[in-house]
């Protein structure tokens, strides 16, 4: 009976979707882990931003960029702009504005 269930299109679709969701979640966590290690002051902001991204390729690119970013200002700017096509200009406030550390305007 289990084999019969596995052969159904519903089971196959559900397991494929679950694998994709797991892959996306793992990539999100990888980005946040890099940010937490390198720029802990913006880790919560990074988590909010990556939670909005559904594209695995975009998350992989962001992970590489966060690994090579030199400053917290660059990291914040990447988190704001990396998924502009995905979110079309999020209204998320900059986590460091007012601290004198960064200007997050994306104009």
Structural description of this entry:
By secondary structure, the chain is mainly alpha-helical. The chain has one domain. Helix content is 65%, strand content 0%. Helix 2 (9-38) packs antiparallel against helix 3 (43-50).
Features:
107 residues, 6 helices, mainly alpha, single chain
Task: Summarize the structure in short.
With 107 residues, the chain is an all-alpha fold.
Number of strands: 0
Main sheet overview: none
Average pLDDT taken over every residue: 83
Order of helices and strands: HHHHHH
> What fraction strand?
under 5%
Structural class: mainly alpha
The percent of residues in helical segments reads 55-70%
Instruction: Give the distance, in angstroms, between the N- and C-terminal Cα atoms.
Output: 59 Å
The number of helical elements comes to 6
Residue runs with pLDDT of under 50 for 5 or more positions: none
Shape by Cα distribution: elongated
Q: How are the SSEs placed, and which strands pair?
A:
Elements: H1 2-6, H2 9-38, H3 43-50, H4 56-68, H5 72-81, H6 84-87
